Structures are given as C-alpha cells and as structure tokens.
Amino acid sequence: MRAYALALTIAGSLAFASTAAAQTTPSTGGTDTTSSAPATVVDPAVATGGAAYGQPNPATTQLTPEQSATVLPTGYAAAPATAPQEVKDAIAAANAIVGKPYVYGGGHNSRFLSRGYDCSGTVSYALHGADLLSKPLDSSSFMKWGAKGAGTWFTIYTNPSHAFVVIAGLRLDTSAAGDPSGAKGPRWRPVLRSTKGFTARHPIGF
To answer: What is the pTM assigned to this prediction?
Structure first.
C-alpha cells in the first residue's frame, strides 16, 4: 500500500512539474502549442488595407508610407498608409477590375458589375467601392457631380466623351494615353496625362 501511495505521489509530482514548465517556458515568437484553443487567423486585407470591394487581391495588403499610391509590378496599386479609409477602399475596388477589357457601357447597372468596363464605369466602380457613389454615372454626369476643382485625395477629370480619376496621385484610366504599355481597359497608369479639355471634380471632403 505504501509503495502504491509513493508511486501516486511521484506521478503527481512529475505531472505538476511538467505543467509548470509548460507555463513558464518563455515565448520564442512561434505558435503557442500549450493552448488547446485554435489560432486566430487575421485577414491581411482587413488588418491593413481596409475592406476590399469586389474580388480581393494582394495589393490591398501592401500599403506605402508615402502620401501617394504606388503601382506594383502586378499592375495593382498600393494605398498610402496615411490615407483615409475611403481612399484605401477605392483603390481596393479599382484593383478588383484592373486588367478587365474595355467594354462600352460596362459597369453601368445597379450592381456596378460587368465582364468589362468603360471609362466612366471604371470611375464609378472605384467610387462606389468607397461608398462615395450610389449609382453609376456617365462622363457627362460626372461634370456636375461632387465639388468643383481638384480634390486632396480624389480628382475626377471628365468631359462629354471621356472620364478618368486620380486617386492619391495615381491615375485610373481605361485610355492608354501616355502609358508605354498601350494596354486599354481599367488600369493604373504610371504617368498622368494632359487634362486640357477636362473638367475637374472631386467628392466633397476629399
């Protein structure tokens, strides 16, 4: 009986020592294997890039420390870390349609969805992603939308035949004007283009 009690005492002591060691072992930065709770997975897009509108893409997790957005090698854009959430959301939305073909009238429906987009449909999609526009507008309608002149974060350049938008210093345009790639359809363009003949408008407050 004493031997049995001694064995239980030794077993209990070993179990206590093992538990104490597990609790006092310093963290090395890896996953805590002592916890039975499942690890929490953080969505990078939500953590650092705002809520993406449309299909998610890698660019929404790559924010730049500067005030201007940056075109990445993938063709997507990275939003400035200091930008308002609306700017980050607009860039994320635009990224979701980058590379789609130019389609006349594309995006001009209640859901803003299409297999391709025209110029004003592209601008509308980006602004809708930022909750700044409730229905698509054509280029003529944009001439009277929002406030006059260039904005701090958004500027829509528009005339009766074409529209494009500059978001955080980066041009979103279906026209390849000034773009060495020559690619048409919704894309972030590496350089700005002439704004002669265009009316500048911006969302109020941005």
So the answer is: 0.70
